Amino acid sequence: MSGGLDSSSVAYYYAKKGKDFDCAFFNYGQRSAKMQYFASKKICEKLGKKLIVFEIKDVSKPFIDNGWLRPHEPIVHRNLVIIPIALAFAKEKGYEEVVLGTVKEDCEYEKERYYVIQKLKELGEVLGVKLSTPFAGFPKWLLLKIGVNSGLDPSLTYSCLLGHKYHCGQCSQCKKRIEAFKNAKIHDPTTYMSL
Length: 195
Fold this sequence. Notes:
two-stranded parallel sheet; 195 residues; 6 helices
């Protein structure tokens, strides 16, 4: 759970289907962690779901050491860090499945993502925990529509990479958010600083 459109839509979809689940939030040092956490917390409170928080922000320090700076997303291949932890946690706590709310557009900036996820699914099989990506072939706008149709109030979500109170409107995630609302023909309730 990142508190964004995708993970929030998945949570609402599963809740509407009557699925029993908990949500996991990872602070891995991303600039928007605080706002993502607030959004995730709101979504989980609305759904009556438990939010499990993993505070691992120091894991990003070696990635940005020696002047190498990725100010928004300190770990490009963060799934290699986050998902194994989620799988190990699921194995030890008795969860049968980990659901990743990834969509088609996610592979555009992380070219190896598909293959990484496939290998992580194999890791899940070794542990006896299913790693599911039920919406990986869906465009973002379609998952947004599914979320809204399942009861999601998109004004509660947060997508911006910068981590300010309001969305910047210019970063890659804001642009994808704007495009998703436009393509889904859903009113965008987001306040953007630059628009």
